[in-house]
Design brief:
Layout (H helix, E strand, L loop, with lengths): L1 E9 L2 E10 L2 E10 L6 H9 L12 E6 L4 E7 L4 H16 L7 E11 L3 E10 H13 L4 E6 H6 L10 E7 L2 E8 L2 E9 L8 H21 L7 E4 L20 E4 L15 H11 L19 H23 L4 H25 L8 H15 L4 H11 L4 E7 L6 E8 L3 H16 L4 E3 L4 E4 L6 E10 L3
Parallel strand pairs: 1-4, 4-8, 9-12, 12-13
Antiparallel strand pairs: 1-2, 2-3, 5-7, 6-7, 9-10, 10-11, 14-15, 15-18, 16-18, 17-18
Helix pairs in contact: 1-3, 7-8
């Protein structure tokens, strides 16, 4: 039996899952859960030391599923480009999202999700700052545990979504007193929202149902604000312990279906069931389907085109026909043999060309990417500040007083002030109109961190603080 070990890490819990595949079926062999206060080096070193050798018995190393709030996920549609330029494209986007400067500072895993018309591709990418991984790496090295791969928890959870869905799918899973809402494009996470679980954690079904019923509408409002497509279906992970009759309470008006995600591994009655992300990764490893790891250099494997394969087969068929014709003529047998050798050499050349198309292309050298990054950074520093001042002033009504407009080239844009009205409804309506006008500006995008509060002792006056960011694309 081929054995795989997975360590699931998140602030609050360390979960170890060991499973094996035999006869096409993946079975759970061991499952262990330990509390950890944080993901610091000393804390993890002590926690891993307490596992003992039996916990990872039979596995040559471990695959790590990391729940880290600094993890970034995105999908990109790229035109017809060589593999190296695709890698450079997602590298620049990863550096922008993680606010890092050099490709050596970020860990990236990318893969092709699907191919579009015009030889375009959709890539799914995960990125993490290297300094967030280094303390964890040191803890495993201190315990002499080989790390075979590192994956984000959101990437593994997204594997439960349909590979080719007509619309976006959301998956909810719980772990260590937190719930994780993952919006998926196919089987790739594109937006993530995390929130704490009160009332006894995921073990309290009634409290969990109530909290999810409140958090889902808030999550949909957040998705609308950032311009993201709402999911058409929702899947519940194995740790979402709500009752079957309560599932319909989560449906609401936006969702077409709400169902439980099916686990692909064989359950064991006396063991704690692993999360849906760990279960999906364990089954994928058992079937020999490798998931891109954050520890490997970013790579894009472009498939060989059908036209090239057809061309090679046509050449081979023509060569075979010529060979047969030459052999039939006994007097030209020697010439036919020479022609066959020439065609064989041409066949080998074409096969080598096909193999070269499948060679993995890694990221370009750091100097080239760094130069491109400086150019992109310089272009993003150009901000329409004069237009911003004029548009914000023009968007304000007479009953809305602006107190401060704060902005910089890379920081958030903050608009603060006070709005009043004859009634509370009128004041809030004026503020809503003002907010909509700001969000309609093409060079700005909301960041979902607005604050509105009543002025003490004045029921019809509200102090507000609206946050936005420069749109870079």
């Amino acid at each position: 039996m081929l054995t795989h070990a997975i360590v699931e890490l998140e602030e609050g819990a360390l979960n170890v899952v060991v499973g094996g595949t035999e006869g096409g079926t993946t079975r759970l062999l061991r499952s262990l859960r330990l509390p950890v206060a944080d993901l610091g080096r000393e804390t993890l070193t002590n926690a891993l030391r307490s596992l003992g050798s039996d916990a990872l018995q039979g596995a040559s190393g471990v695959h790590i599923v990391l729940g880290e709030r600094r993890m970034q996920h995105f999908s990109s549609t790229v035109p017809k480009l060589p593999a190296a330029e695709m890698v450079a494209f997602v590298t620049r986007e990863a550096l922008r999202l993680t606010n890092l400067q050099s490709p050596s500072d970020v860990l990236i895993a990318t893969r092709i999700l699907r191919k579009l018309s015009g030889n375009r591709h959709v890539l799914g990418t995960t990125a993490l700052a290297r300094n967030a991984w280094e303390p964890i790496q040191a803890a495993f090295e201190a315990n002499h545990i080989a790390v075979l791969g590192v994956h984000s928890m959101e990437t593994c959870v997204a594997l439960a979504a349909p590979a080719a869905a007509s619309g976006t799918t959301a998956v909810i899973e719980c772990n260590a007193g937190r719930a994780r809402f993952v919006l998926c494009d196919g089987q790739n996470p594109v937006q993530v929202r995390r929130f704490l679980i009160g009332g006894g954690g995921e073990g309290n079904a009634a409290a969990l149902t109530t909290q999810l019923a409140m958090e889902l509408p808030r999550t949909f409002d957040w998705l609308r604000e950032i311009g993201q497509t709402l999911p058409s279906s929702l899947l519940l992970g194995t740790r979402v312990t709500i009752e079957d009759e309560s599932i319909e309470l989560l449906k609401g008006e936006e969702l077409g279906t709400v169902a439980r995600a099916t686990t692909p591994i064989e359950a064991v009655a006396d063991m704690a069931a692993p999360g849906i992300g760990v279960a999906m990764l364990l089954d994928r490893l058992g079937r020999g389907q490798k998931l891109p790891s954050l520890l490997d250099p970013p790579r894009v494997d472009l498939p060989v085109g059908l036209g090239r394969v057809v061309g090679v087969m046509t050449t081979l068929a023509a060569g075979l026909a010529c060979s047969v014709s030459a052999v039939v003529d006994g007097s030209a047998w020697m010439a036919g043999r020479d022609a066959l050798q020439v065609l064989s050499a041409e066949k080998q050349r074409l096969e080598a060309e096909i193999a070269s198309r499948q060679v993995t292309t890694t990221a370009p050298d750091a100097a080239t990417v760094a130069a491109d990054d400086r150019l992109q950074a310089a272009l993003r520093m150009r901000r329409p500040t004069s237009r911003l001042l004029a548009d914000v002033s023009n968007a304000a009504e007479p009953t809305l007083q602006l107190e401060e407009l704060k902005f910089a080239s890379t920081d958030r844009i903050l608009v603060t002030g006070v709005v009043s009205g004859k009634t509370r409804r009128e004041a809030l309506s004026t503020l809503a109109v003002f907010s909509q006008r700001l969000r309609a500006l093409a060079y700005l995008q909301p960041d979902g961190q607005d604050e509105v509060g009543e002025v003490q002792g004045q029921r019809n006056r509200f102090r507000f603080r609206l946050g936005m960011a420069w749109r870079n694309s």
